[in-house]
Amino acid sequence: MRGFVGAYYGRTTNDYHDRLTNNGTLLGTVMGDTRIDNRALFGELNWTFAPKWTLITGLRYDRERNRTDVQQDDFSTPGKVSNTFSALLPKLGLDYQFADSQYLGVTVQKGYRGGGVNVRAGGGHVAYDPEYTTNYELSYRGAWREESVRLRANLFYTDWKDQQVSVLDDDGNFFQVYNAANSTIKGLEVFLEQDLTSQLSINAGLAYTDGRYGDFVTGDGEDMGGKPFLYAPRYKASTGARYRFANGLVVGADLVYQEGAPSQYEFGADGKVTRTHVADHYVLMNLNAEYALTEQLLLSGYVKNLFDKHYITNNRNDEIIDVGAPRSFGLVLDYKL
Fold it and tell me: Which of 32, 36, 78, 271 has the greatest CB tally within 10 Å of its CB?
């Protein structure tokens, strides 16, 4: 039997003073503050009750308090809200080793995220409820050729209750968070990795995710039932390589593809979708490297979006859009005590 217990406490504060302008002209101000205190107790116990069979159990109790005070909003009425949320989250699973380096597992687990308060400009600053998930997962892990070839796969289904969804209001000006009555997600993730030599390894991954709203009518009466999730691409794929030099320098590169996803639905007078705004498909190349200066000191660096690809991540109405991050560089210095 193997297990652990733990406790968590976190505090998040956000003091915001947003000034919305257009060509230097002040349109309005939103000002306020939010404080979130989160506490949790959690634990897991795994029991190998027979050769090659392991029972997995876990439990988490989560409690969160949200205090939000919007003192000024030139686009809607200010508001002051205080809410407390809590949840008990169990986990149950079974793991079976059916051959050398070959494993099958099944897991059922509850998930949760606390509610909150709309703080965006024009959002009305009303509270929204927590959301809950029940996650079912069938997993496979396998290795061959002295574990130089490794494969991981996950088949999953999620039943989502009271999903928190951010959509534009009926006028298309301000975002509002609503709770969808129910939603579902189903999908498959596969990742394959092979060590070609002691220095060079390659990998490839594929993910398919189909997320759809169930019974969901927004506060403006728009029926989104059966529609795919906003901002959720169905297909993602990646391929990459990693090379370790004799001096300890490790260099890697990967190509990442992501399918375009719906970012806004337009509805007609009859409440049906008349148009869907979709973000771009894109392929990005990323580089990374790391070098151990000492046993405790690690220097790493990265280049994201190497070729400075331009792409739209959020197309709200063909005039207001969000774009992907440009080429970016970074250096990280890690010290292990």
Answer: 32
